[in-house]
Every structure is written in structure tokens, then in C-alpha cells.
């Protein structure tokens, strides 16, 4: 996958509102593989919803989301499984993957499926974010990450997947 294209996409919950001011919603936007994007917005404006739509987890939106020109609403369960295995990764803000594991262990677990990065590279990414203790301390377990560390860990998880640095969402 090289492109994710949003065409006048809008969460269904916002459909009845007259004024939706956004740089994402109701726009024609293309996210290109290999580039970094930061989506920063107030709470309740649809950042998590956007990630859920792109991941195929939710379908309650208007407009079109396509991967390389193909509308994602037409994907079969098997196609979604393939996309998630080879092209996309998401770390939900609830972060309930494996709460007994550290953030590093959760990222390494996902990476075992894709073999996209070497452990040394992932450790370097943790180090670069300034949260090396998260990978070494039981206090850095997934559910106990401070908000800033969680965002960094989410970005690391994105970097560890095969569609690295695709979209980072600041929550």
C-alpha cells in the first residue's frame, strides 16, 4: 500500500452539525507511504475515530476512504487481515493489548508478526523518544504509561510496522 485517500470523510456523529471546521473532515487528503503526518486536535474531534476507520475497525462514517484507489468498504475479512498483517498497525488509546507486558514487549510482539525491524532498531527508537525506562521497568507496563510516553510508544509501534511512520496521532 502506497496511499491512503480520504474523500470528504466525516464521522456519522458529526453529520448533523452545520459547522465542522477541520483540516481532515470534509477534505480531499492523501497520506503517502513513508511520510510523517501529525494530526493534532482537541478532544472529541475524531482523531481516534479516524484511526479506527483507516484500520477498518469502524464503518460509521460518510465519504470514501481508499487504499491505493480501492474503497476500503469493499474489503473482505481476509483482505483486512492481510492489510493489518503487512501494511497497517494501530495502538488504540485504551492500550489493552497485553497489560501485563511492558510497552516494549507489546511492540516486540507486534513486530514478531511482521519482522519489519530488528530488536536493536526498536530499542533505538525507544531511546530516541526519551523513554528508555519504559522498556526496562515494570512501572512502564502498557496500562500505566503516562500520556506522553503512551504517545511515544504508539509512534514506536507505528514505526515497527511495515507501513512505518504513516500517521501519528497526538492524543
Strand content: 15-25%
pLDDT < 50 stretches: 135-151, 159-171
> What is the radius of gyration computed over CA atoms, rounded to a whole number of angstroms?
16 Å
The average pLDDT value, as a whole number, equals 76
Order of helical and strand elements: EEEHEEHHHHE
- What strand order characterises the main sheet? 2-1-4-5
The main β sheet shows up as: 4 strands, antiparallel
Number of helices: 5
Count the strands?
6
Shape: globular
Specify the helix fraction band.
25-40%
Distance from first to last alpha carbon: 25 Å
Q: Based on helices, strands and strand pairing, what is the structural class?
A: alpha+beta
Question: What does it look like?
Answer:
This protein has 171 residues and is α+β, with helices and mostly antiparallel strands. It is 33% helix and 17% strand. The protein has five helices and six strands. The strands form two sheets. The protein has a four-stranded antiparallel beta sheet, with helices on one face. A two-stranded parallel sheet has the order 3-6. A hairpin with a 2-residue loop joins strand 4 and strand 5. Helix 3 runs parallel beside helix 5 and helix 4 packs antiparallel against helix 5. The longest helix has 14 residues. The chain is globular and about 50 Å long. The C terminus is likely disordered.
Amino acid at each position: 500500500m502506497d496511499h491512503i485517500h480520504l474523500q470528504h470523510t466525516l464521522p456519522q456523529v458529526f453529520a448533523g452539525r452545520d459547522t465542522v471546521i477541520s483540516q481532515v473532515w470534509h477534505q480531499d487528503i492523501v497520506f503517502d507511504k513513508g511520510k510523517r503526518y501529525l494530526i493534532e486536535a482537541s478532544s472529541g474531534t475524531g482523531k481516534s475515530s479516524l484511526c479506527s476507520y483507516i484500520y477498518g475497525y469502524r464503518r460509521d462514517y460518510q465519504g470514501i476512504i481508499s487504499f491505493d484507489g480501492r474503497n476500503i468498504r469493499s474489503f473482505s475479512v481476509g483482505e483486512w487481515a492481510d492489510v493489518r498483517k503487512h501494511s497497517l498497525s494501530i495502538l488504540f488509546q485504551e492500550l489493552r493489548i497485553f497489560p501485563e507486558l511492558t510497552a516494549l514487549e507489546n511492540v516486540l510482539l507486534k513486530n514478531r508478526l511482521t519482522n519489519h525491524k530488528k530488536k536493536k532498531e526498536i530499542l533505538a527508537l525507544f531511546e530516541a523518544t526519551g523513554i528508555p525506562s519504559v522498556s526496562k521497568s515494570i512501572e512502564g507496563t502498557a496500562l500505566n504509561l503516562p500520556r506522553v510516553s503512551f504517545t511515544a510508544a504508539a509512534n514506536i509501534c507505528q514505526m515497527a510496522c511495515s507501513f512505518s511512520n504513516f500517521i501519528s496521532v497526538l492524543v
